[in-house]
Design brief:
The protein has 360 residues and is mainly α. It has 17 helices and 2 strands.
Amino acid sequence: MKIRNDLLKEIYFFSIYVYIISFYYLKIKGGDIFFKSGVIFSYICCVSLFFFIKHTKKEFFYLFFLIIVVLITLNTSLIPIILFSYFSKVIKDDKEFIKRYLIINLICYLGVIFLYSNNIYFLPQIDSFRIVGEEIKIRKSLGFSHPNAVFVYLIPIFLSYMYIRIEKWRLYDSLFIFGISNVLYRLTNSRTGFILNSIIIIYIHMWNLFEEYLEKIKLIKFFYLNLFTIMTTLSLSIGIFFHLNSKLNELLSLRPMIWYEYSYNFISNISILKRSKLKYLALDNSYLWILFLDGVLIWILYNYTYYKILKNIFYKKEIKIIVIYLLLYSLFENIWTSIYINPFFVIGMILIINKKESGE
């Protein structure tokens, strides 16, 4: 039995490795057929676990319900979240998952930069520029699809590092995160990633300093559990009330104005079904993307799932840190529904299932 469990675990990890690699390389330039093949193959590997693991009636009900939601809404972004979260029950240790998640992301990330730096051109060369005052600054893409993507693909690496190190966090951990962020900022001129990484470093030190006091405040848990709703409300408010603020638009790369355009076009006829984004307007906000483009039903599903998972695992300090990191980043990038960037659902299910099995 032990051999079988180990084999199932390796099949699961193999499937998620293939999925992550597909997004790092196969989608990066042109080869759409290879990207889709990689993703489908990872799904098949993951689904094969269905026949070798036990399922409760409650789990069957949830799985059936989610499949119906996908069919009704035609929202394919739910598929990897459902599959990799549901079949994560073969993993018995959240730290083992996060370590291997870190390793595959780190290998892929460094691999992209290596290929870029050695002028291997099947990766995109999408360098751009930004005007800062009277100076024109070159923004390196380092082989990724956009200069901002350099920091976006760094999220799972930093997040995993924080998850592993948080209980023993020291000043050199902060200097490590800040140092890498500073170097990448100078290369990409991506302010969002640099600022958010700096904020999370400060947040970690503040939490460690006042942890004993903060754990006693019941309002903290309420704040965390409702943070998805709070961030959605904040996104709408910034778009509606501050879209004409020139300084804020300059600081946030016109995001408030774009958020307003989406709010203006969709809020009056909000739908439960998936819709196409506005042409030529990239929506860099997870909450508004889910609400307006994926539909209100999917927004409710994500909000409810976030609430239920976090409520069950709020005791974990690691979760408190990575949730803040992910939700802050989701305010400025569309990452919440991307499981290769956001492992919250998988980690949450691993912790919940193992907690039930241990009888806690």
